[in-house]
Amino acid sequence: MAYDDDNIIIDGTPKVSAEPTHSGQLGKLASALAKEVKKPDLSLAVPGRDGLIVVFDTNLTVEQIEMWRKACRNKRFESNFDSLKFACVLLANKSKGIIFDGEESTNELGEPLTLRSTEIHDILGVSNFIGHAGSQTIEAVKKLYGYDGHIMNASGELLAAAGFDSDEDDQDSIENPIQPS
């Protein structure tokens, strides 16, 4: 088939668009719904380490949480779950940058350092740590934060920023502006 300059089939039949266009309020709604929903990053100061801030991606899925929770099962605990390990895994996997004295820290290639970076592991002295896969990263998080409470607080703030806050009093509520007919 051939089309003219107005995308109309030469015999006069209009070309059907693959993407319907809408006007008015429906068009505005369609435009708003076409945008990807992304949560802003979270920057947290590391307690006891002046000038050190870790930046976290707060876009977190239930699938990620379940995968990391599964990796943190441990029969040595009454609950069969190592919550400190989970907090370390969460912080490490969602870290996306480290800021020191107001400047982003990068490796020699100019890439942002994260809690998973070998350079951070080297600086914290955990590069030779022997254990299961990810042990160096978990130990790096522990050394960076220093105290279990600091790790648990940071992971709690990250979960809350990602929308997994269990405190319903903090939830924003919007009164329904549409009156029932």
Write a structural description.
- The protein has 181 residues and is of the alpha+beta class.
- Helices cover 36% and strands 9% of the residues.
- It contains six helices and four strands, in the order H-E-E-H-H-E-E-H-H-H.
- Strands 1-2-3-4 form a four-stranded antiparallel beta sheet.
- A hairpin with a 6-residue loop joins strand 1 and strand 2.
- Helix 2 packs across helix 3 (83-94), helix 3 (83-94) crosses helix 5 (135-145) and helix 3 (83-94) crosses helix 6.
- The longest helix is centred in the C-terminal third of the chain and has 14 residues, at 148-161.
- The radius of gyration is 24 Å and the shape is globular.
List the SSEs and their pairings:
Blueprint: H1 24-34, E1 42-45, E2 52-56, H2 62-71, H3 83-94, E3 95-100, E4 103-104, H4 118-124, H5 135-145, H6 148-161
Antiparallel strand pairs: 1-2, 2-3, 3-4
Largest sheet: 4 strands, antiparallel
Helices and strands, in order, run as: HEEHHEEHHH
Question: Could you give the distance between the termini?
Answer: 50 Å
Mean pLDDT: 84
Report the helical percentage: 25-40%
Shape type: globular
